[in-house]
Amino acid sequence: MPRKQPTARQERLGRELRKLREAAGLTAREAAGLLGAVSVTMSQIESGVAGVSEARVRRLAAHYACTDSELIDALVEMATDRTRGWWEAYRGVLPPPFLDLAELEHHATYVDEIGTAHVTGPLQTEDYARAVFAYWRPELPESELEPRVEHRMRRKEVLARGGEAPYTAVLHEFVLRTRVADRRVARAQLDEVLRQSERPGVTVRVIPFDVDGFAGASAALLYAGGRVPALDTVQKDVPSGSALVDAAAQLQSVRTLFRKVESVSLEPAQSRDYIHRLAKEL
């Protein structure tokens, strides 16, 4: 039965299958014929509206002459995954992008974030997150504010996986000094960043105000590594909210951007010392 609202992960699987088909020079009708199906079936698979079995993924890959076994295995994993993670509790409560981001982080092999406006989501305290969401206009009612805060706190799961899925955050000094609420919340937030930075697999780096060569003030983003590089994804803030980006050229551009931003940041140990000094100033 067709899905009413496929997730971003389901849509991504469909897009990747379409890319393989187009690279093979086949039409949707021709590909459907290889499965003994009608063209509408292929359209539904490639839009994420319909699921696809492991056998069909492998059959299509063979007909598309795809020899990248790691990519094929990763697509099979996406097709057969039946994970119902903690984010499912928020379906119908929060907008889909919140759920898609949590699912993206859950499946990521690593996560790199740049924070130039706020402390990155997984590193935020509850009070800090509440202050950020409460600042939205039009103002959110309590019934919508609290689920957003709860969801953000649940995203800390990404910090607890150790070396299995490393997490790196590059934070500008601006976000560490900005008081989104009051002095108490600001001090607790710095303490939380320091505490989380001590976890295995978690790296926090700071870009001081006086560093030379930083022109990336608008570079806030999240980069999630896929099982293979072709399945990497970027989450970016846009005027309408947030968007997931996975075009090869854009992924390469963002990887380059992250390297540039990281290169002007302090080393992890220096960053912790820097945050300690900022905390003492509060």
Structural commentary:
- The protein is α/β, with parallel strands linked by helices and 282 residues long.
- The protein has twelve helices and six strands.
- It has helices at 8-23, 28-34, 39-46, 54-63, 69-80, 96-107, 126-134, 142-154, 173-177, 183-197, 248-263, 268-281, and strands spanning 110-115, 167-172, 202-207, 221-225, 233-238, 241-245.
- It has a six-stranded mixed beta sheet with strand order 3-2-1-4-5-6, with helices on both faces.
- Helix 2 (28-34) crosses helix 3 (39-46) and helix 7 packs across helix 8 (142-154).
- The mean pLDDT is 95.
- Residues 17-71 form the HTH cro/C1-type domain.
- InterPro entries: Cro/C1-type_HTH, DUF5753, Lambda_DNA-bd_dom_sf.
- One of its GO terms (molecular function) is DNA binding.
- Pfam families: DUF5753, HTH_31.
- This is Helix-turn-helix domain-containing protein.
Note the main attributes of this structure.
single chain, 282 residues, alpha/beta, 12 helices
Topology:
Elements: H1 8-23, H2 28-34, H3 39-46, H4 54-63, H5 69-80, H6 96-107, E1 110-115, H7 126-134, H8 142-154, E2 167-172, H9 173-177, H10 183-197, E3 202-207, E4 221-225, E5 233-238, E6 241-245, H11 248-263, H12 268-281
Parallel strand pairs: 1-2, 2-3
Antiparallel strand pairs: 1-4, 4-5, 5-6
Helix pairs in contact: 2-3, 4-5, 7-8, 10-12
Summarize the structure.
The chain has 282 residues and is an alpha/beta fold. The chain is built from twelve helices and six strands.
